[in-house]
């Protein structure tokens, strides 16, 4: 069986900057991968290229056995994406927005409504379902974007910072929801700076620095290379060349 994602020699240039540089990575089907890296490491750029939202400068990406550059609609139907920011249609209510997204995926209105109600119940969006998205708090917008990514039951889910701006109670709900999907066989890739959450959720990690993949494998494998008793935070700091002082001179 082909892996859920196969990336070979992928590069993305923005002018002179290589935001992603000669990166190769395979994500087997059913993996729950945590993609880590400092601000500007290239994570969001990589996610956008995997999902076909951005073209690479060079290299190849296969998703679910198909070349992403083919622009295949079949891939788009089988993956769910929560890109950076929220990118929602702000003049719609969350219920209208999900109806729109569901129809794009070819779902029947009854199924969309059934799933939307369950998602809104679980993520506590039900009271705001008839308010336009522009009037939502940031966390509510993120939750709406997550619902849109999940609605069609994707085989592969790519989530760029799904926990950013989400309250601690909802973080627990989203964690349980993602672990449930993983148990059912969904392949998941998420980026997050919350290393404690990633450590609990993601059995497999890929760590980027300055556009390059600097480490990948299971946490156990990475620990056996760098130090058995390390937490993920300690491992991350070591790979990035240590922490820095944040003390000001004034
Ligand atoms: N559209 C763009 N035009 C020019 N440069 C860009 C563009 N998008 C990203 N970059 C640059 O590419 C690099 C990687 O950015 P990217 O958003 O992928 O990082 P990231 O790892 O997601 O960071 P963060 O953790 O802050 O979200 C950064 O230096 C950024 O300034
Ligand atoms: Mg990013």
Summarize this structure as a short list of keywords or feature phrases.
250 residues; alpha/beta; 6-stranded mixed sheet; 4-stranded antiparallel sheet; 24% strand; globular; binds adenosine-5'-triphosphate; binds magnesium ion
Explained architecture:
The protein is α/β, with parallel strands linked by helices and 250 residues long. The chain is built from 9 helices and 10 strands. It has helices at residues 43-50, 73-78, 94-104, 109-122, 138-150, 168-183, 195-201, 219-226, 232-239; strands at 5-14, 17-27, 32-36, 58-63, 66-67, 79-82, 156-160, 187-191, 204-209, 212-218. The longest helix is centred in the last third of the chain and has 16 residues, at 168-183. The mean pLDDT is 93. Bound molecules: adenosine-5'-triphosphate and magnesium ion. Adenosine-5'-triphosphate is lined by residues 14, 17, 19, 37, 39-45.
The small molecules bound here are: adenosine-5'-triphosphate, magnesium ion
Question: Superfamily at the CATH H level?
Answer: P-loop containing nucleotide triphosphate hydrolases
Task: Tally the beta strands.
Answer: 10
- Our count of helices gives 9
Uncertain segments are none
CATH hierarchy, class:
Alpha Beta
The helix/strand series, from N terminus to C terminus, equals EEEHEEHEHHHEHEHEEHH
Q: What structural class results from the helix and strand content?
A: alpha/beta
CATH topology: Rossmann fold
The largest β sheet comes out as:
6 strands, mixed
Coarse shape: globular
């Amino acid at each position: 069986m082909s892996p859920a994602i196969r990336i070979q020699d992928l590069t993305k240039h923005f002018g002179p900057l290589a935001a992603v540089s000669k990166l190769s990575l395979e994500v087997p089907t059913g993996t729950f991968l945590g993609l880590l890296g400092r601000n500007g490491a290239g994570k969001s750029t990589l996610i956008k290229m995997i999902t076909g939202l951005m073209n690479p400068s060079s290299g190849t990406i296969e998703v679910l056995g198909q070349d992403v550059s083919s622009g295949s609609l079949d891939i788009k139907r089988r993956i769910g994406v929560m890109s950076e920011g929220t990118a929602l249609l702000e003049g719609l209510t969350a219920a209208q927005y999900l109806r729109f997204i569901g129809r794009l995926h070819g779902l029947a209105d009854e199924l969309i409504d059934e799933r939307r109600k369950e998602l809104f119940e679980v993520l506590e969006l039900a009271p705001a379902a008839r308010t336009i998205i522009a009037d939502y708090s940031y966390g509510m917008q993120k939750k709406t974007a997550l619902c849109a990514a999940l609605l069609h039951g994707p085989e592969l889910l790519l989530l760029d910072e799904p926990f950013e701006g989400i309250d601690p109670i909802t973080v627990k709900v989203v964690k349980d929801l993602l672990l449930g999907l993983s148990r059912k066989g969904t392949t998941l890739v998420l980026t997050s700076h919350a290393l404690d959450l990633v450590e609990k959720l993601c059995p497999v990690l890929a760590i980027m620095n300055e556009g390059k993949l600097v480490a990948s494998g299971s946490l156990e494998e990475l620990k056996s290379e760098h130090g058995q008793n390390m937490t993920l935070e300690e491992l991350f700091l070591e790979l990035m060349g240590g922490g820095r002082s944040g003390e000001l001179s004034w």
